[in-house]
Amino acid sequence: RVLYVDIDIHHGDGVEEAFYTTDRVMTVSFHKFGDYFPGTGHIKDTGYGKGQYYAMNVPLNDGMDDESFKGLFRPIIQKVMEVYQPEAVVLQCGADSLSGDRLGCFNLSVKGHADCLRFLRSFNVPLMVLGGGGYTIRNVARCWCYE
């Protein structure tokens, strides 16, 4: 059982779609919602068939800061880890959720972004960290050097 967590500003639509009908991979996407590409990731989109309730979407508004993001991320991931009990976690760390990204609209600091990684590491489950979006090169470099 694998847990895929996406903190890129865009909905993790491709990965969610790939595993939408299975319970072997659970996807959790924290993303900008509304009139924003790709326009998917409604809170009611939860999977289908055997995958019902194995897709979780956390649609967010513009301006999410460290404290607001942490206040959602930690309790949601805590509960997912307790209930789903994954054998491995994949974290997609798109840097476009950082403040100052030219396409993003969140206000996360590098420290706030890294807090998500730190929290997932605290569960002592094998963890793979992937890059993702990031449209301001300095932010991408700072994000990966920090994390």
From TrEMBL:
<protein>
    <recommendedName>
        <fullName>histone deacetylase</fullName>
        <ecNumber>3.5.1.98</ecNumber>
    </recommendedName>
</protein>
<dbReference type="InterPro" id="IPR023696">
    <property type="entry name" value="Ureohydrolase_dom_sf"/>
</dbReference>
<dbReference type="GO" id="GO:0000118">
    <property type="term" value="C:histone deacetylase complex"/>
</dbReference>
<keyword id="KW-0378">Hydrolase</keyword>
<dbReference type="GO" id="GO:0040029">
    <property type="term" value="P:epigenetic regulation of gene expression"/>
</dbReference>
<dbReference type="InterPro" id="IPR003084">
    <property type="entry name" value="HDAC_I/II"/>
</dbReference>
<keyword id="KW-0156">Chromatin regulator</keyword>
<dbReference type="InterPro" id="IPR023801">
    <property type="entry name" value="His_deacetylse_dom"/>
</dbReference>
<dbReference type="GO" id="GO:0141221">
    <property type="term" value="F:histone deacetylase activity, hydrolytic mechanism"/>
</dbReference>
<dbReference type="Pfam" id="PF00850">
    <property type="entry name" value="Hist_deacetyl"/>
</dbReference>
<feature type="domain" description="Histone deacetylase">
    <location>
        <begin position="1"/>
        <end position="146"/>
    </location>
</feature>
<dbReference type="InterPro" id="IPR000286">
    <property type="entry name" value="HDACs"/>
</dbReference>
<dbReference type="InterPro" id="IPR037138">
    <property type="entry name" value="His_deacetylse_dom_sf"/>
</dbReference>
<comment type="similarity">
    <text>Belongs to the histone deacetylase family. HD type 1 subfamily.</text>
</comment>
